[in-house]
Each structure stands twice: as C-alpha cells, then as structure tokens.
Design a protein that fits this description.
The protein has 214 residues and is an alpha/beta fold. It contains 7 helices and 7 strands; from the N terminus they run H-H-H-E-H-E-E-H-E-H-E-E-E-H. The protein starts with 18 loop residues before the first helix and ends with a helix.
C-alpha cells in the first residue's frame, strides 16, 4: 500500500490532528528526515515541539480537568504555566468549562515566538496571582525543581512529560498517578517502534475519580 505523503515542513500544531494522522506524519518524518531538527523550529511556523498534541489527547486532558473542577468546587481559572507558545491552552479552551490563563517566564532558553496573550510570569508568581483551580505543566525544563514547588501548593496539577528528560526526579517522590494515556506523542519517542516515553501525571487530584472519568 502506498503511504500518504506529508509535507515534512508542515506545522503539526497548525490544527489539531487526530492521533492516527499525527502518528503517521511523525513516522514518516522519522524515516525520511530529522525529528529533532523539525521540533527545534525547522517547520513552517518556526514552532518548537516537546509534546505533540492530538484531538484524543486534548479531549482526555480536558475530561480530567473538568472532572477535577466539578469535584472540588474551586471557582478559580485553569492555569497553564511554562506554556511556551500557548498552543495547548488554545486547544483546551473550547473543551474547558472556564477560562484558561497561559503564562511563561520567557527566559530565552528556547527561541519560541510567544503570542502577546501569553503573560510573562514565572510559574509560582502566576499561581499567587490567579489562585487557579487546576494547573497544567507540560515539559518542565530538565532538573528544574519548580514542579516540586508547584505541586506542594496542593492544587490539582497535570504534569506532562518524560520523567527522564524533563523536571526533577524528586517530584515523583510526591504521591501521584500516571494517567496511562494511549495518546502521548513527544519529540523523544521512537514512532516506528511504538516506543512512547511520556504521560500525564496527576498530583493533588482525586486520583480514582479523575482517571475513571475518561
């Protein structure tokens, strides 16, 4: 069977693709080109990719967030910290029952084209400012301890990433539960071999309720 031909420069986050379409593109890119180069801004939008979001992944994460907010009754917004270009917030907003605020320290570590609506704030400062009902954190920098400080605030948090490639190992000494998502895709995966290295890790959640909601 002839495989579908994708433009190797296409922006995989220009629109929200299905998991099967995103995986097919990434498999082809892995076979024909340089995944790391593509993820480091060498694509049509100059976008940096760490986690690749799909419609199924976003729907799964939105269900976790909505269930948590319903069970807690906290009126605060959802807060995405260290959000990069804020694309995950854009994908989540139509599925979330209240506003999502996106913040990033914009420290120059990566050459990310930040939209103006992404507020320039460090994670802990933004938590103090907005008193969120739920926090989303995707691909915290490697060996950063900010994630530990964040979850110690006691606010329900979804930490997304590869524990071996981002964040600090001590974070996982704090009680948590992996969502065991079937829709995780990241820059460090081996797509042809179906070796996926990331997940959604839940902290300060009613763990049984949040995971059973999916």
């Amino acid at each position: 069977m002839k495989r579908h031909q994708y433009d190797h420069d296409m922006d995989i986050h220009e629109v929200l693709l299905s998991y099967s379409d995103a995986l097919a593109f990434l498999e082809q890119l892995e076979a024909d080109s340089d995944i790391k180069k593509y993820c480091n801004g060498f694509n049509q939008s100059g976008r940096w990719f760490f986690q690749i979001y799909t419609s199924e992944f976003v729907e799964e994460l939105a269900a976790i967030i909505n269930t948590s907010m319903e069970s807690r009754g906290n009126p605060g917004p959802v807060l995405e910290v260290m959000c990069g270009d804020g694309r995950l917030t854009e994908f989540l907003q139509p599925l979330i029952q209240r506003d999502i605020i996106a913040t990033d320290a914009k420290d120059g570590r990566y050459n990310i084209p930040y939209p103006k609506w992404v507020e320039s704030l460090e994670a802990l400062v933004s938590i103090d400012k907005y008193s969120p009902s739920f926090i989303v954190l995707s691909w915290e920098p490697y060996l950063s301890t900010a994630g530990i400080d964040i979850v110690q605030r006691g606010i329900p948090t979804a930490w997304i990433g590869n524990p071996e490639m981002c964040g600090h190992q001590d974070l996982f000494q704090i009680p948590h539960l992996p969502a065991k998502s079937g829709y995780v895709l990241s820059r460090h995966d081996l797509f042809g071999k179906r070796e996926f290295k990331t997940d959604i890790y839940l902290f300060n959640c009613n763990l049984e309720r949040e995971t059973k909601s999916q």
